[in-house]
User: What shape does this take?
Amino acid sequence: MLESDTSKLSKKELNIIQNYTEGLFKTVREPLLVLDRHRNVVGLNSNLKKKFKINGEFEERVSVFEFNNGQLDTPEFRDILDYLQTEGNTVTERDIQVVLPQKRKRGFTVNASVLPLPDENSIILLSFKKLKNIGDLSRQEKVYNRLVENILSNAPAAICILRGQEHTFEVANEHYIELIGHRDIIGKTVKEAIPEAESQGFIELLDHVYSTGEPYIGNETPLKLKVGKDEFKNSHLNFVYQPTRNKKGKIDGIFVHVVDVSEQVVARKNVEDSEARLRSVINTVPAIIWITDTDGQSVFLNKNWYSYTGQNNEDAKGMGWLDATHPDDRKKAEFAFLDAHNQKKSYSISFRLRNKQGEYRWVLDKASPKFDDDGNYEGMIGTVIDVHEERLKENLVREKDHRLQGIVKEATVATAIYTGREMNIELANDAMIKLWGKDDSVIGTPLHKALPELDGQPFLGLLRNVLETGEIYWGKEDKVDLMIDGEMQTGYYNFTYKPLRDKNGEIYGILNMAIDVTESVTSKMLLKESEFHFRQMADLMPGMVSKTDAKGDDIYFNKNWLDFTGKGSKFLQEVGWESFIHPDEKETFLKAWEDCLNTGCNLEMQLRLKNKEGKYIWHLTRCEAVKEDDGSVKMWIAANTEIDKIKEEEKRKEEFLKMVSHELKTPVTSIKGYVQLLLTLLKKQKEAAEASKLPLQPSLERINHQVTRLTRLISEILDLSRIRENQLELKSEEFNLNELLAETIQDINYTNTQHKIALESEVQCQIIADRDRIGQVVINFVMNAIKYSPGSQEINVKISREDKDKVRVSVKDFGIGIGQENHKKIFKRFYRVGVKSEETYSGFGIGLYLANEIIERHNGEIQLNSELGKGSEFSFILNATQITS
Ligand code: ADP
Assistant: This one.
């Protein structure tokens, strides 16, 4: 806006202007005001003075806004000047209000224009025409105007009346003024008041209505109003342009009725936008989305449905979508939907859906009920996703699973699968169920419930550990107590707990395979036990027992072996027991042993083994094979029994037989000699008839003596066998022991003239015994005393009291005597001191044995007192019935 600045007008300029104005004032009757380009008053005519009630001189070159107490300083008037000067337009018929003295307002119609002057000067010409005063109206007009004013101000709509071809605002209510942003519009044309309306086609519309008389109804028509310098406001308007006619029926204006529906439009637009957005989202998601109404009828399917199934809107609506499902799945799909719809609940179902190409593919249909803010059911909303590939894979897996299950079921190895933290028995084959002693009902239950007896046993903990660490557990002959047939039973099992992993490597379960090894464990235990017993027995056995494996390698030696050799078991295993065999037998043994190993036949032989003192002792060696059921050799047991003593006895027996034959031969030869002699003599006597000269008596005595020896020998041998067979019978008779001794010594003396046998009787005694056998003992003692004292002739026999009722008979010689070490041995069968001297002292080694047996059987006792080289004294002590001194 240009500021009033009079100083900028030169005097010359002023003069020119005033000259112009003078001329104008003379010709123009209407009130006229002239301003320079700075809006300073340069002149006014008398009519203006009159109308504006200006008394006296006007203030020259004062700003028009200060003119006559600022009468013209109104927004409308400023608008007019701005409009004039900026646009270079003329202003016609513009109404303004001017405040006159006493504050009365007066309306004027202003016409104005800018008049260019030379030297680029210009003046502004303003003519004022007085508007009709209200007071000037007819009464009818006044009533009408009030009514209009009333209607306008109370109407809820924005209303205005445009007058004339230029559509000048005649009346506008406050809503209208407000609608267009409180602009000063009365008296202005639409083009002037709302210049932006032109480009938006409103002027054209108004022109059309004015020229044709056809009303126009605008519906939600957008209008862009200028609200600031570069600011616009968008509105949406419902409006009516209704032409008005004058009394003559000619169109003279337009009634405008506007309702601002911007808010509704925006709100609806927003809804529409968000719906559109939702739809576009719904249509872009890679899934089928569907919505049904409260009756279960499909009301929306996104375009994926149509492109997938090839159905159209018409096909799919209501329950038409079911036509695209597989005939076999249709009922299932329908039921699942209706059931969820009726119960207003979520559901999920898988069925086959026909695609555009006519191929049925597996889909997953998932839906939830929809409720409004008040909780009223609005229908279902759901999605359909193609899961064909996954489903096929799943089927494959299932098939695999099925096959696996089949395999597990068929497997003879007890197998079970546990899943989850609870160790649910997912699968258990018959073998496993039998092993548990349970039935099928355990499948699907947690392991600790199915087998409560596991509580307190380590297995549940082991399983948990496998689940946590993923490390396989191998059970080796683990002891498991299971409740089978209502009884706790102990078994032994080899088993595995192997973690099962899903495709992501996560452990989801455990595979348990178990083998019952109870029998083998218990037999092993039995074996161990019997092995222990064997060793114990082997150690207790008097012989030396050893064990070798099938190949003949030594693996065990009993205690006697260790004691005998003085070596440790390890040493014996290393060198083998054959290293103790006497060199004379070793080769034979090794050869025989090799045969054994080759043939599996047993071995028995006698050999000498060297003891820890380095002495070889005779043993009977037996090697026997222990065989498996199939006949193969499992091991060898070798037993070595000491036979040194047996060997010796055997030797003695041999000598005895030699001796017996020798002893028998001597008397028989002798008898034969004497008989031959006698026969020869008899023959000669016949010839010589001199029988009385025959030496018959001494020959017969000799024969008699030899027969006696033979008889004794034979009866001794008989006694020997009787004793062996426990058939020695004793007679029981009371007799005088002194008499028996006297008789016996006499008999001996009769045949033994070289020795002097003295009998000393300290007591007289009666005993109850077998008289002949006691005599036999006495003969034996005396005969030995004779035999073993070649250098001495003295033999003393004595009968004495041993005890109150015991008597002692002793036979003492002064012969070769017996060493202490043989005192006991000589009473054994066939034992003779110094075996090699059998030729020196004939005998069988049975005399003392028989004597000892006879005395023992009489509850008596034999005693020996002897020293080597000094002689011997053999005594026996018997119970006596009577002893007298
Ligand atoms: P034998 O027929 O050998 O005499 P015996 O049984 O009577 O058998 O005696 C056993 C052995 O006891 C004899 O071989 C002998 O060595 C020893 N013996 C027995 N009596 C005497 C004795 N009076 N003096 C020395 N040795 C004796």
Observations:
- The chain has 26 helices and 33 strands.
